[in-house]
Structure formats: structure tokens, C-alpha cells
Amino acid sequence: MKKILNRYIGLCILLISIGATAQEKQPLIQSKVGGTVIDAVTKEPIIGASIVIKGTTHGVQTDFDGKFYFQTGQKLPYTVIVSYLGYKKREFTINENSVVIDLTEEQNQLSEVVVTALGISKEKKSLGYTTQALKNKDIAETKETNFLNSLSGKLAGVRITNSQGDMGSSRIIIRGETSIAGNNQPLFVVDGVPVDNSQLGSVGGATRDFKNAIADLNPNDIETLTVLKGPNAAALYGSRAAHGVVLITTKSGKSQKGLGITVNSGITISQVATLPSFQNSYGQGSNGRFSFVDGKGGGVNDGVDESWGPRLDGRLIPQFFSNGEAVPFVAHPNNVKDFFNTGLTYDNSVSVARSDEKSDFRLGVNNQKQLGTVPNSEVNKTNFTINTNYQISKSIKVGVTGNYITTNAPALPGGPQGNRAAGVMLQFLWFGRQVDINELQNNRNVNWNNSYYSNPYWNAYYNTTSQQRNRFIGDVHLDATLADGLNFRFRTGVDYYNDRRKYTIKYGTNGTPFGSYAEDAYTVNEQNTEGIFTYTKKLNDDFSLDALAGFNIRNHSDANNYQKAPRLAVPDLYTLTNSRDPLTSSNTLSRLRVYSAYASAQLGYKNYAYLNVTARNDWSSTLPSNNRSYFYPSINGSLVLSEALNLKSNTLDFLKLRGGWSEVGNDADPYQLATVYNFQTAFDGNPIQTSSQRKLNENLKPETTRSTEIGLEATFWKNRLHFDVAYYNTNSFDQILEIKTTASSGYNSQLINAGKVNNRGLEIQLDGSPIQTENFKWNIGANYSRNRSKVEILDYAKQIQNYTIGSSGGVDVLASVGQAYGALYGTAYLRDANGNIVVGENGLPKADPTKRVLGHYTPDYLAGVTNTLTYKNLELSVLVDASVGGEIFSGTNRTGTYTGVLASTLPGRGAENGGLSYYYPNNNTANGRTLVNGTAPSGVTVYDDGMIFKGVYENGTPNTKVLSAQEYYKASYNISEAYIYSSTFVKMREIKLAYNFNKSFARKLGLEGASITAVGRNLFFIYKDAPNIDPETAFNTGNAQGLESLSLPTTRNFSLNVNLKF
Amino acid sequence: MLKKLSYIILFGLTLTSCSDTLDDINKNPNATETPLAPYLLTGSLKQGADLYWGSENNFNSSLLFVQHWAKIQYTEPDRYDVSNTSFTSLWNTGYATLITDLNTIINFPDAQANSNYKGIALTLRSWTFLLLTDAYGSIPYKEAGQKVTAAYNTQKEVYTGLLEDLAKAQSLLGTTNGTVTGDLVYKGDVAKWKRYVNSLRLRIALRIADKEPALAKQAAIEATTDPAGVLSSNNDTFKFTYIASPQQNPASAWFETRDDFRISKTMVNKLKEFSDPRLPVYAQLPSDASVGTYVGGGNGLSNSDANNQGFAKTSKPGTYFLTSASPAVIYSYSEALFNLAEAAARGFISGDAEALYKNAITASFNQFGITDNTVISNYLNQAVVKYDASNYAKSIGTQKWIAFFGQGLDAFTEWRRLDFPVLTAGPDTVLDGKIPSRFFYPGTEQSLNGVSYQAAIADQGKDLLTTKLWFDAK
Q1: Which of A751-765, B252-266, B362-376 is most confident?
Q2: Transmembrane region positions (chain B) (predicted)?
Q3: Which residues of chain A have pLDDT under 50?
Q4: Which range of residues forms the domain containing residue A36?
Q5: Residue of A621, A689, A750, A795 for testing the chain B interface, max B β-carbons within 10 Å
């Protein structure tokens, strides 16, 4: 390795010495001319515009006031070429001193500049792949506490999943899942620094869906967010960019002339949006019977946490709050809804920015306080940010960025699945519909059920998860001009954070009688150091060259330390020493390092044909030494047909064809080569070692992803309509897969290089302005994307047909050979040849002993439409987005049907709901049920909750066996098929109303600018199939999507935001 | 200026220290690649006991099937309303933990594990395979741990193979073959291990007795004529003794936070019928003092019927089984004597079946702390207890069923083999009046080892709870 490093340094020194010889020469002075470059419309000076004397290489740039100055050997008059990114290039003849040159903004696609890999700005027309960008207002004004949510529906091919509730994670996937087992989320790069977006400690079924790490960023600091889709756009970033890159540029002081102060203040109100629809006709109990004594079986069915009890008709029954007195048994229809609070988020920020000829800076502070919808939940976050640059000499500029983020969440809401001490929805789906939530709120020491749960307020206030996180993201960078066209950039950046969680369960909690206390601490450190040489040269009138070469050294480490006092010695003291038992603990450290070298070149012909090539080689510590080095290239090109073939007309402004091919390699996680044995808690002084149950692989190879992409882009009618379509085909090979194996192989999983996954997709973006007058504008932005995935091969020996991505409630999420990624695999009803469900002698449906694919979680297509109406300074925009196709397995519906709390369990319960009347002959239940035919024999008790499961017996005759409604609704609990739903939805995602005050009006108030914005988010479903849940939910950001179980409800948010500039 | 620049860059590069090689960085600091035999042995014993005595294989399944215990709420498993995700731990832990760890010891070079470690590992591995085949039927045996998709072997192949393995284990064990540490059961007493090996051979001989009598007889003779002998006192009982939380008995840990089991009415009534002094050991009096007598819970009831029996009015299993340090008994002296009695009754070996039967019951009484000879002889002299030479299966089956209280997996196997006592499925069970005859294979076998699985069920019969296994002749 030292050899490689030496080579880098050698190269660097060589280039520096080349630069040093190219000293400027002083020509004979013939004229001295000064001038100013301004914007033709705003009349504001343009800083950094380039002015070159035509026919020479002599050029200068405008200064901070838009001024420039020439002293040359040229005699007046002479012609200069004035250019600035985003403005039309202009030739101007100077024949006097003190000229003013105005430039008009370029409105067409020809000059649009976008940020590309490694932060290099390029003309969009020269690229052979797709990028798409969002501006600050698209992100910050939504006031989402996890800013990824604000991307929903706005970017073609980008899928956002908001996992849980209002304090949870969000998952972002660009162009589908290409990795079977690994991370499928893109790389995030903030101001050139790769930053961490992991979700620590939330793997499958943990008690809490912690926020993914990128949510730490303050959206107010984001200037632009650019998405590089797919490996073509991102090949230069290497390994981690196989799933795309999200480039975030934060605000700087560069464009702020003089001192500017911005104050932003917002408030958001959140409501629980999607709660299950509950029945209010029957209360707690079983077989129609209930009476409370101690809530754990001492009374009649009072330990039962289901609602198959008596009718809620006001009959008198002792209840949990009545001290044995019989009180009216009535419904409390809002008992779940009323548990939740209205969430409130306060968001305030101040920033100060300034720039002058030599330097610029921006300082900002942001404070966000969120009080969640679950009682007692709270998150406080403060961001401090600095971004500053200083020109230390004519050719060298240095800069620093820093972002310090401190998050303090005293209590986060409990998560999904089976945590009885802290889960929220668990208790509400195993519930008594008669429960008066106010009685529970008034006295946390009583509860409606003591067999399984504690009072939900007890859980919310005493059984808490707290999180404290301190994070620093920053870099030091240097830009140097070494010679004409040759520049060097050096940067070293860091993303470092500590994340400490504390879990308390109070002494006396039902199910955890002694309480417990645990601390879980993470330290993550990501460092990147890079040096890049760029070289730009116009080779001749037709050809131009844009080249780059660089290196990167990446170090990553994360450490975890977990300790738990499983049973407290005394109540209410949460320390690790307050323990009856030895502590359970674990600690891990994980480190990796990657050295990389890369280069790229762009050859341009006459401003309309471009060829781009890139190459990169990585050396990763995580691979065995003989496979450690891997190389991958890419090539792409673009042809602006409208220029090349001179197709420009009144109709067509711009037409571009693009295409590319790329390969990206990927390494493994650390420590995947040698099989290890773990220690377990020693037994009475005897250490215990045991197999890790994972067979690792000392011959791992790097993964490879190959992608081709073609696209067409066009604008019509003077930019009134813009159209972009992209098609891609991505194949991933040699994936590093930890395949689940049958335990009889000796291991529960084995690590292999395997597989081929294919993803093909289409993305369409449309932007149009059907109406455009001086005061009024209507703009429609629409995007559509579809992705088709197919798992083609798992292991090359073809022994393995399925890879298990995750499981819940008996359903596995599989990558199954021949299927789309994310197949939902589970138990189906046993059916006869005609498709009828087969029932047993007892009238209950039978499960097919052979499991099968019941659906896929990946949607068929995604679409989003934003309509924006602008009248003078008032802007209204409405975003509707849709996800069509795909399935979800809903544990909420499964549980709620079993427990009889859902409104969908009403049919058949009682004659008024269509229940059949039946009796037991001689009132003996052993005689079985007989339907009442006419009138029942005298003296028998008649029940009216009879139901017959629609199906046939094994001999093919229709089922006639009468079940009670309770038996009927419980019958399918272990048949996954019954709880698979289409996850299609159309959502009113966002309505935004913004008003920008006139500059003149603002100035009267002593302001430079002011705006006010009102936003509503996740307002309602225009359409959805899955009952009782938000089909967008998931457990966490992992690949096991399409599973839902007792998840926290998502929220509907309304916010008001004021932005003032001084 | 440019000179300064190169200094800055050199400084920047030094921030990224190059002193560690990439290989060093990837050396796992969290676990070891080289385990030690005594630590693996301790782990196998502890995890084996947890598996055998824990909820999934014992009190939430097999103990309910044989009506030792009953559920008073969440009665689904007691009604056999279970799925192919219900019996995964015996399979997964059995193979991927126990058999893998034991194979690691067996495959160690001699310098890392002496021949006694290997003999013990082979014995415990045989015990694990035995549990697996008794519960599921055909299982991967010969290819287990060798192939990603291991083929299944029939029960006949497995039992025969285990007899050979145990013969080999016996030859590996020797009092002069080196010391063993980490042995929490026999504390390194190799003579006891040799007796345990013979006792397991005897157990397997009876498993195949109805199907392969000649082979069974030969195995029984080999087991009983081996100079080491079989378990010869309650001190030889193969059991794992727990200590305090968190290393407590799994049933004790369960009852600390949950209350959903009672002793079965079938067991209480049988003990009452026999005036069995083990009743106060097996059961607690109901917490409602007004009840004043032992009351078992019904098996196979609906949730509400089970509930309505009253939590305070029914008997929990005895505290003997529910304290932190309660032992997990895996092979009792009493069982060894019952096995000898049956082998004698079948004419496999010489011996007085009746005397052995009485000794077996006496050993069980002693195991549970009942040592008063008068009490014991009064019990043995009852007509309902007396050995019935014309129906040894009934006498031995019934008494073994009582003696096995708490050892669900073996009680379940022996009940299937001997068909005594006669048990009736509870009123709300879902198998058309039948009681399970086996466990489902884990559902994951269908997705992970599909071809082998399909071949196995084609041979053995549908993967149903009611499919009879090969050893279960009737």
C-alpha cells in the first residue's frame, strides 16, 4: 500500500512543479479599461463572470461588486466574450472605459448546469445519464422532521418509505433494489463529505424505529439536493454509489453581498392520520362473557385481552375502575384516538452570511423541539453550522465547513411488534372496546388488563427509550490553480457521532415485574481524504477536454457497547449497578479502510457532442488480499440533436439523446472472511463458547453491478414543455450474500458470492406551463417511474432457490429465483381443484401445508403530480403521489381480526349483523350447534352469532358447520393469505401556500425579504386498498419491507413558516 | 506558496495513518476463530438442557401432548392449533448450535481435545440426533453439517447409525484418556459418562424394538454387557442443574413473568387414583385456600373454558420444578431401570422384569425426595400399581409416564411407543380427536432444503402432526 501512496504523492509533486513553471508574463500595456457586469433584469452585479478578450487567452473575472479591469497590449476597441453560468454568453465590443455589460439569464436546457459526481459542476447537456435536483424550498418548507419524507413524489424513480409514526426512520430507494442482501440506499454526500445514513439498533423487531442518521441535517441549511440515479451517474464514487448518490450542497455566504441575516420560524401541528377502524358493539371478554375482578383471570374472562365479550348495551358489569361495583358496559369509540396527543413541532433558525472579495462565510443555528403524538414523546435537536472560504493568494483558496448536531430525546415512542412493556399499538389491538381511556389517564396504577400489559400511560411515561446523540460533520478543503486550466482540490472530511440510548422499564410493570435498565451506545466515525486534479482545455475550435484524476482514502469505524441490568434491585433507580443479576453485555468494534484511485475525461465536440469516460480502482480491507483490488470503468455520451442537426424551430427548443454503460464494484462488510465462535454469559465460573451459526467465506470476491441507460430529453414552445425519459437495465453479479441455510447444514447462514439480479426501469418526467401570463402562471410537474426486478440466480450451484430477507408473523420476505425481489412467502388456504377453500370436519378452514408466494412488496409503478399556481407573489402548489401495485402483509389486521376489535369483525356478530341463530340441543355444548329452523325447541338458549365459513369439505360438499363469530374470525390467524393486501395508494401528499412579500414592501419594514408559507402534508388518502393501516409503513429502513405489524400510526401535518431576511 | 501547499497535503495524508495494513484492519476484534473444547462442552450442555427443558419443545408442546401440563390461557398449542413455525428451535439449535459445536470438538486435532472430550461430544451429538428423529421422524443425519442441502435419512438409518456412533463413543472414553473440564453434569467423571453411553444404547434398542427386534436385542445385550454398565444410582442421573437468574431453570424463568400453565387434570387424577405420594411434589395447592385439594387443568379447552376453570382454583406444577435451581433431568436412573425391565420383559436380556419395575418406581420416588420405605412398599403393593406380566407395556408405560413428569420430549416418545396410558384429546382440539404423533418440520425446510424435504415426506408421509413415525408401530 505504501507504494501506491508514494505514487500519489509523486504525482502530486510533479504536477505542482509543472504548475510552478507556468508563471504569468507581463505584456506591453496599450489600454486600461474598467467595467461592470450586471443582470439585465435585476440590475444586480454578477460576481465571478468571465471576460475574455476574443482571440486571446487573456481573461479576468468580475469581483465582488461585479467589476472587472483590463490592462492589455490590445488597443481599443476590442471585443470581449462575457460569460457566466446560467446566463447567455455575450460578445461585447469595448471602445471606452467604464462600460456596463448586462447579461440575460439563459432559459433553455443548453446552459443548465448541474452538480455531478465529486461535486464537479457540468453542463447538463453534456451528460449521458440522469440527475434530478430539488431546491431548498422543496425540502425546507415541508417542515418534515425527517427531511427525506419531503422528497416523496417529487423525484422520478425515487421511493421514500416513512417507516413508523412521527419520530421514525425513512427509507430511500433509487431505481429499485439491486442488492439482494446489502444496503440498497444511496450514498449521501454533504458538501463533498460522504456522511453516514445508517439506522443503528433497529434491526427486525427491535422495540424502536430509530431515525436514520441523515435525518440529523437541518433542511433549512440545504441549498440544493441533487440525485444521481444509478451507477452511470455515480461510477466515480465507487462502491457505495451502486444504489445512487444524493448530493447535498449546503448554503454558503458566496452569494450574500454585505451582511445578511435570515430568521426562519415555523410551527407544525401533527395528528394521527391512519388509525384502524374499530367496532363499538362488543366489549372485552370471550364467548360473550366478562366481569372484572383483578384483570388477570380472577373474574370472568378478565385476563382476556380481546373483545369477544358482552354487547356494549349499557348492561351493568364490574369494570377495572369501579372497585367491584357493576357499572354500565358501554363503548368508548375514541378510546384509542384519544390516547394520542396533537403533536407540536417548533422550528427556529437564524443564519448570518457575508462575503467580500477574499472571503465568505455563513453561520447558522437551528433549534427544533418536537412533542410527538404519543404522550410524553419528545425530541430536541440543535444544529450549529459554519461554512467559510478564504482566498489566501491569487491561486489558492481554503475553506472549512462544520456542522455540529446535538439531539436529545428524553422519550421516544415504543415500536412495533411484541414489546408488551413499551409497544403502543400492541395493546390497542389486543384491547377491550369498552375501556375508558380517561380512567387510565387519571390513574396510571390501574389497568384494564393485568395479565399482559400495564396501563398505556404508565408505559408511555415510565417505560421509556431515550436517545442522546452528538454529531460533527465537517471538512477542511483547499483549491489551488496550478496552471491555466489545471486545478487541484484537496479535502479531508469527517463524520463522527456518539449515539447513546437508555431503555428503562419501571419496577412493577406487568410482564417485567422487576423492571429493567439498559444502555446502548454507538460511536461512528467516517473519514475521507481526497485529492483531485482537474484539467480543462479547449483543444481547438471544435474539441474541448475536461479531465480529472484523483485519489481517496476512506476509514470507517463503528463501535457498540450494550449493557443491561435485566432485573432491578430497587425501584426507580436507573443505573447499571442497581441489578439483581449479573449484567448482560456485549461490545463490538468494526473497522474498514478503502484506498481508491480514479480518473475521468470528457471530450466535447462543438458544444453538442460529448463523450465521458471514467475509471476507478479500489483496494478494500474487507476482501481477501488476492481479491482486494478491483477496477471498474464507465462510458457515456450525449448528443444535442437540436444543435447537431439544426432542428431548432418555433416548436422544438432542445432535443438531446444520451446513453451510457457502467460498472461499479462493491466490497463486503468487515470481518466476513473467517468463521468465528462467540462467547455467551459464563455459567457459574465456566466460560461458554458457541458457534456463531454463520459460515463465512475466506474467498470472497467483490460484487459487480453493470448498468446501461439511455435517455431522451426535449423542450418545446420556448420552454413551456419539458420532457425527459430514461430507460435503464441493471444487472448485479457476484453479490455477497449471507444466505439463510437449513440448520442441518451446520449453520443458519452461509456467506457466498452469488446471484444475478436484474432491474429494468423506465422514468418519465414532464414539466409544463399551460398558462403563463405576466401575473399568473400554472405549472405542472409530473413524474412516473416503474421498476421491474427479477432474481435470476442465487447460488451458481443452483442448490438455493430462496434467500430470506426478513420475516414477521409467519410470512417471509424472499428473494426467490425467477421472482421479483421481495416476494411475500407464507401459508395459504388449502383449496380444492376448483379453487374452493377446504374446511375440516369442524368447519374451520385448513392451511395448505405447502407455503407459497402470496405477493411482492415492490410496487409496479410510482407517480407524482405537482400543480403549482402562481399569481403575483402568491403561490399554491398541490402534490398528489401514488404507488401502484405491490402487496403488504398486515399484522394489524391479523391481530385485530383475531381479537375482535376491528369493525371488520362485526358482520355475523348478532342477528342485526346477519348472524345465524343456533342452539345446542339440550343446552349441552358437547352436542354441537344446530341452526334454528323455524322455531327452536323450547327451553334451549338461542345464540345469534352463527357463521359458516365459505368452503367445502374434502369430499367437495359445501360446508354447513356453524361456527360462533369468535371462532370464525380466529380461524385464519395462521393463514397468512388472509392478511395480504394490495399496497396501492394515492395520497394527497402536500398542499402548500406561499406568499413572498414585495421587496419594496419588505424594505419599508426594514427587511431585505420576507415570505410566509403554510403547508399541509399527508393530508388524506385519495385511494387505498389496505384497510386499517397506512400501506406505506414498514418496520425500519432494511430490505424486509412489505411487512407491517402493530406499527405506530403515521401523522398528518400542518405547518406555518415565516422567513425574514435582514 | 506552492511549497506550503505540498506541506499541507502531506500533512493531510498523515491524518490517514498508514501504519495498519489492510489485513490487520480486517482481523475481527469481537470474536475468536479458535474455540476451546471445555468451553464448547459447557455451552453444549447448557444449551442442550435449555432446549430440552424450555418452553417450545417441552411445556408449550410435548408436555401438553402427553397431558402432564395444561394451558389455562392461550390454549392454541394445547388444542394442537399450531403451525410449521411452532417447532423450529429443536431443529435450529439442535443442528446449528449443538451438533456444530460438538462436531468442532470431534474434529479437533488431538492436541486440542483428548479422546475423552471426543467421546463425550459424540455421546451428546447422538443424544441430539435422537431427540430430533424422535420428534420429527426422518432427519438429515449422514450429511448433516456436510452439505448445504443435506439429504434426510430414515429413522431406521438414524437409529442404526446412532448405535454405531455410541459404540465408538464408548471406545473413545477411558479413565486414563485424559482429564475433562467444563463438564457441568458429571464433573469430568468418565466412568459415569461410560454408563450414560450404555444407557443411551439401551434407550435406542427399545426405540427400534417393535420394528427391528433382532437388532434391538443385540443392542440391548451390548449395552448391558459392556463392563461399564448402565446408570446405577440416582447419583448417575444425567441432569443439568441450574443456578440463579439469569442462569435459572427455563420453567422457573417463565413462571416469573407469566401464568398460563397448570398441571394437567389427567396427571392429577392418575396420581390420585394411585394415591401417589409424588402428587404434592408434582403439584401445588390452588392459591385459593378454600379449594384445599389438588385440581388439574383440562387439556385442549377453548381459551374461555380454560380461563373459566379459575386461575386461583387450579394447581400450578410443583415448586420442585419451578425454582431457579431446578434441574433439567435428561436421563434418570429410574428410566434406566424401566428400560432394563422392558428389555427383560421382551426377553432381550435376562433379568426379573417385575423387580426391575419396582426398583424403577422406587428410584423415581427417591429422585423426588420420597425415601420412606413403608410409603414406597404400600404404593408398590397396590393392585393398580402391581406389575402386569401379561401387559408389560401397560405397567411400564403408565409408570414411566408418571416418572417422566416434566421430561416432555421423552414422555411423548415413550407414550407413542408403548401406547400407555390411554389418553383422550381434549374437547376443543383440532385434529379430529387425535393427539399429535410428531412435530412439524420447520416451515423453512420447504424454502431452504426443498428437494430433500420433498423426498423425505414422500417416503414418510405428509408433513402433518398426525403422521405416524416409523418407530411408532401402533
Answers
A1: B362-376
A2: none
A3: 1-25, 27, 203-206, 416-418
A4: 24-106
A5: A689
Q: For residue A419, is it within any domain?
A: no
Task: Retrieve residue B338's grid coordinates.
Answer: 424401566
Whether residue A971 is found in the same domain as residue A833: yes
In the DSSP assignment, the letter for residue A921 is G
Report how far residue B103's alpha carbon sits from residue B89's, in angstroms, rounded to the nearest whole number. Answer: 19
Count A/B contacts: CB-CB distance under 8 Å.
278
| Residue-wise burial string across A53-76, b where 16 or more C-beta atoms lie within 10 A, e elsewhere | beeeeeebebbeebebebebebee
Contact between B447 and A802 using a beta-carbon 8 Å cutoff: yes
> Three cell numbers at A917?
341463530
Instruction: Give the residue-averaged pLDDT of B268-288.
Output: 97
User: What residues in B contact A19, CB-CB < 8 Å?
Assistant: 2
* Highest mean pLDDT (candidates A84-93, A105-114, B84-93, B203-212): B203-212
Name chain A contacts of B150, Cβ cutoff 8 Å: 742, 744-745
pLDDT at position B5 is: 59
Quote the pLDDT of residue B12.
55
Residue A95 lies in a domain: yes
Strands A222-228 and A1009-1024, by their bridges, are unpaired
Nearest one of A630, A627, A660, A640 to A117, comparing CA atoms: A660
Which tens digit of pLDDT belongs to each residue from B382-422? 999 999 999 999 999 999 999 999 999 999 999 999 999 99
Distance CA A1050, CA B175 (A): 67
Name the helix (H) or strand (E) containing A898. helix A891-899
Is the same domain home to A37 and A167? no
Together in a domain, A127 and A185: yes
Please judge whether B12 and A529 are an interchain contact, meaning their C-beta atoms are less than 8 angstroms apart: yes
Residues A123 and A86 in one domain: no
> Per CATH, which fold does B37-244+325-460 belong to?
1.25.40
pLDDT for the residue numbered A856? 92
Q: Considering the entire predicted model, what is its pTM?
A: 0.80
Q: Assess whether pLDDT exceeds 70 at residue B96.
A: yes
User: For the sheet containing A980-982, what is the strand order?
Assistant: A980-982, A887-890, A1043-1044
Contact A686 B184 (CB under 8 A): yes
- Please give the pLDDT value at position B321: 96
A117 and A164 belong to one structural domain: yes
- Other C-beta atoms closer than 10 Å to the C-beta of B301 total 23
Q: In this complex, do B46 and A9 lie within 8 Å of one another by their Cβ atoms?
A: no
> Under a CB-based contact definition with an 8 Å cutoff, are residues A476 and A12 in contact?
no
Q: Is A762 exposed, middle or buried (0-12, 13-18, 19+ CB in 10 A)?
A: middle
Beta strands per DSSP E along B122-210: 139-140, 152-153
Domain-terminating residue out of A74, A106, A138 = A106
A526 beta partners:
A495, A556
Tell me, yes or no, if A529 comes closer than 8 A to chain B by beta carbon. yes
Q: What digits encode the pLDDT tens for the residues A882-923?
A: 999 999 999 999 999 999 999 999 999 999 999 999 999 998
- Report the pLDDT value the prediction gives residue A93, as an integer from 0 to 100: 86
Query: Can you list the positions of beta strands (E) in A673-720?
Result: 677-683, 686-691, 694-695, 703-716
Higher-confidence position of A126 and B235: B235
Please report whether residue A953 resides in a domain.
Answer: yes
How many domains, chain A? 3
- A939 shares its domain with A844: yes
The DSSP string of A620-665 is ETTS-GGG-EEEEEEEEEEEEHHHHTT---SSEEEEEEEEEEEEEE
Please report whether residue A554 resides in a domain: no
Residues of B in contact with A584 (CB under 8 A): 246
d(CA A648, CA A149): 39
Q: Which residues in chain B have Cβ-Cβ distances shorter than 8 Å to A581?
A: 244-246
Q: Respond yes or no on whether ipTM tops 0.85.
A: yes
Partners of residue A847 on adjacent β-strands? A829
pLDDT of residue B474 exceeding 80, the answer is: no
